[in-house]
Amino acid sequence: MFFLFLVAKRRPAEMLTKPAVTKALSESGSVFSPAAVAHDVLRYSALGYFGISTGLDGWLLKQLHPGMGPVNNWWEVTQSVLFAPLAKVISVAYVLGWDAVCRTHAPAVAKATKVATKANDKPATRGRSNSGSGNSGKKVR
Cβ distance 50 to 74 under 8 Å? Predict the structure, then answer.
């Protein structure tokens, strides 16, 4: 029990209020340490790379969206040309996995949304509102 208390204390505040579907989607990936990201930025900058990424997700995004970046490193250009189709296939697998997670959580999200909407509903008013119109709904010639 004490261990669970320590784990809960270490969680960021957003994890305590994050919807279940968002938790499930964010748990499917990992977080890179600042040191690992800094290492990649320094290493690949020194080699002349413009698009620098860490991990498979970042590499996939770089291959799928090369943009109009400068041609500083021919291996980077070659990767974009050769691996873009493969990156697209892998990204489809990612998206299908995320869609499955969303479908699993859809009933709970719909229920929560419906409850929240009912709580925020205001009584319907009849007729037209003329606030700010200046003509109280009459035709002007």
Answer: no
The DSSP-derived string for 99-127 is HHHHHHHHHHHHHHHHHHHHHH------S
| Contact predicate 32/113, CB 8 Å | no
Instruction: Give the global pTM.
Output: 0.51
94: CB partners within 8 A, 6+ apart: 57, 60
- For residues 13-32, one letter each, b for 16 or more C-beta atoms within 10 angstroms of the residue's C-beta and e for the rest, the string is eeeeeeeebeeebeeeeeee
Quick check: 44 and 62 in contact, CB under 8 A? no
What are 28's two structure tokens? 């499917």
* pLDDT tens column, 14-67: 777 888 888 888 776 778 889 999 999 999 899 888 888 888 888 888 888 777
**How far is residue 17's CA from residue 78's CA, in Å, rounded to a whole number?**
44
